[in-house]
Write the structure tokens for this entry.
Amino acid sequence: MNEQNAPPDQMLVHGSLMVGFAQACVNLNIVAGRDATNFIKGLQINDWYPLAQWERLQELVVRSYGNVDPIMVKVGIAMMTGWYHYGPGKEVVRRGASFLHYQTGSGGFASVVRGPESVVGSFELELFDKSRGKAIVHSTTPFNRKMECGVLIGGMLAPGDIDYVDVRNDEDSDHLVVEFH
């Protein structure tokens, strides 16, 4: 879709995010991997697509598993591992903790979505305490929260300077509580 042709109230997702999600499914041998591969054949990595197309892609995974949460965490981790090792990640993030600032700033989430904040939502770092190894990210995006947990885990582990990362959102699904050491 041409970004200029999109309705002003519509959210658009960058093709690189969609291709990364589908490729993660293939790399992890997720049941939906073949369907995801077929889905992305017509996508252009540098184009923008309506959120509805992302939702159809995500549905390929969701419908294949009774308990999709651990699968979505793994997809998020694999997406960021690929982004870091085979994409631009090494150039923009040197340390695991700095990934939190990147992802919640203008370089991460904001670089792969377009649209009004009322539709796109936000992905904001509310707390960062490096000495305690704790951070809290508040998400109001339309994306799967468990996938977002995986994105944070994968992005923080990818540089290799952090040994442990856990991200939970059990108490409040929109607050991703990050523990890292």
Notes: The mean pLDDT is 91. The chain has one domain: 3-180.
